[in-house]
Specification:
2 helices; mainly alpha; single chain
Length: 76
């Protein structure tokens, strides 16, 4: 599960950086963005950042749902 969140974090990072790039291009010259309005690229940036941070926190915490406590050993 940790690997899944790691790759999801990478995907969200790509989406966020694409949104930042499109936003900056939109501010410089609107003809370079391929018709993406500024509000759309800002939403893309926000979704990318929020998803990246969520997945990164899950990976750092070790995805607690994944690790169940081990039962105690019985010594005979």
């Amino acid at each position: 599960m940790r690997v899944l969140f790691f790759f999801a974090a990478l995907g969200f990072a790509i989406v966020g950086m694409s949104g930042v790039t499109l936003s900056l291009l939109n501010l410089i010259d609107e003809s370079q963005t391929g018709g993406w309005p500024l509000w759309q690229s800002l939403i893309m940036t926000a979704v990318g950042v929020a998803g990246f941070l969520f997945c990164l926190i899950k990976v750092i915490r070790g995805v607690r749902e994944e690790t169940a406590p081990a039962p105690p050993k019985q010594v005979d």
